[in-house]
Design a protein that fits this description.
Oligomer: single chain
Protein name: CSF2R factor
Number of helices: 0
Membrane topology: Single-pass type I membrane protein
Number of domains: 2
Shape: elongated
Distance between the termini: 61 Å
Main location: membrane
CATH topology of the largest domain: Immunoglobulin-like
CATH superfamily of the largest domain: Immunoglobulins
Subcellular location: Membrane
Structural class: mainly beta
Order of helices and strands: EEEEEEEEEEE
Keywords: Glycoprotein, Membrane, Receptor, Signal, Transmembrane, Transmembrane helix
Number of strands: 11
Radius of gyration: 21 Å
CATH class of the largest domain: Mainly Beta
């Protein structure tokens, strides 16, 4: 239920440094300063639903995001739920986030090695894929190499 424009909008989660995740949203278009939002989530393969423990707040103290630690998503889906209150009264604002976006900011590739030979004027470069929160195949990654001459 949207409760006349009080439901959250633009829900996005970003995973960084492999196991940290920030989820953010915009307050509803008609939400008043005393509207409060609460995020619940169920990690993949878990049965327990937990509320956010580390909220991100706007200038009015409204929850507009959550910081998670030790996140493991694997190749499974996590489930999110946001509900709210206004003036201490529970709103019938229950929004199950099914069309959410999870983006992962990757770390640089690991164990980069370079071997250049002057005779052939060639260099060979090796590396390992970055660590990720999911199990991705090496073929999922595309790399760009920038060579600068000194």
């Amino acid at each position: 239920a949207d409760m006349n424009g009080t439901a959250i909008e633009n829900f996005v989660c970003v995973i960084f440094n492999v196991s940290f995740m920030n989820c953010t949203w915009h307050v509803g278009r008609t939400a008043t300063e005393d509207t409060q939002y609460f995020l619940y989530w169920r990690p993949p393969k878990k049965k327990d639903i937990t509320e956010c423990q580390n909220y991100i707040k706007d200038d009015y103290g409204r929850h507009t995001g959550c910081r998670f630690q030790n996140v493991i998503t694997g190749n499974w889906y996590a489930y999110f739920l946001v509900n709210g209150s206004r003036s201490g009264q529970s709103l019938l604002l229950i929004k199950s986030i099914s069309d959410y976006i999870i983006v992962e900011k990757l770390t640089p590739p690991l164990n980069v090695s370079v071997n250049c030979t002057e005779a052939s004027h060639r260099c060979s470069i090796w590396w390992q894929p970055p660590r990720t929160s999911t199990k991705k195949k090496s073929s999922c990654f595309k790399y760009e190499i920038v060579i600068e001459s000194k």
